[in-house]
Design a protein that fits this description.
Layout (H helix, E strand, L loop, with lengths): L9 H7 L13 H28 L20 H8 L2 H32 L5 H10 L9 H11 L5 H25 L3 H9 L4 H12 L1 H16 L3 H6 L8 H6 L9 H31 L5
Subcellular location: Cell membrane
Organism: Friedmanniella luteola
GO cellular component, one term: plasma membrane
Amino acid sequence: MTATLETPNPSTAVRTAPRRRTGTRRRLPFGKTFATFVLAPICALMVFPFVWLLLTSLRPQNTVFSGPFFPRSFTAAAYPKAWTSIEFPLHFWNSLWITSVTVAGVLVFATLSGYAFAKLDFPFKNTLYLLLLTTLMMPSTALIIPLYLQLKNLGLLDTQSGLLVLYISGSAPFSMFLMRAFFQTLPDELVEAARVDGSSELTIFLRVILPLARPGIATVVIFQFLQTWNEFLMANTVLQDTDKLPLQPVLFSLTGQYSTDWPTLTAGLTLSIIPVVVVYVRMQNQFVAGMTLGAVK
């Protein structure tokens, strides 16, 4: 007897093979779903004031509080009025140059002192550092009268130079604290290697440390720019000449005792937000890197 071996047909084998399910449903993790439901209302709550601000600047004045949230008709008449009624370009320029000089001055003092407290050894180092930190515990409102009298004695009252002195001296300790913490994350071996090569401390600071400190510098720039641009109390107290005032005290003058032109006010506020948005967008990558530095090593 001869037995014949039958070879299986490949097409039959393919047909008889079990089919795999191609449509698999992806299940979202419970943590992400919960975070989405929690963060979505928070984001909507944070965006709501800006949306209201923008819509109010584009609606007729008689529909600010009586009309619907989204106006039926839009008008941009409030923007030219805000531009001319309060001399917007003059005060915008005052805010811009005062803020720029303040940020530059704070960066110089904060980076130099932060590097000294982080990488150098000198007598009474910790004592001086604690004394600088104690200035952060005093509220700015409690210092208005002493600072006012001191500027008056120095002849700097009602001058933008006196306002710059207050801004830089008042903001430098906190920025120094941030830069010192950032400099401490940099390895000491870089500084030691530069010293062995014969570099001076100023050369080490400018060519070794500062290029590595860009995320920390961006963080200080954004915080300081936002704080100085929106500052109101010191500027309104020190400066008495209207032409020297920055933008925020002048915008506050648009609020009346009995009635307020809300479209004009919100139009001016919308224009004043533009520099802050531009600075943050240009430096957001470095800012995020500075805030998350050390989270992942």
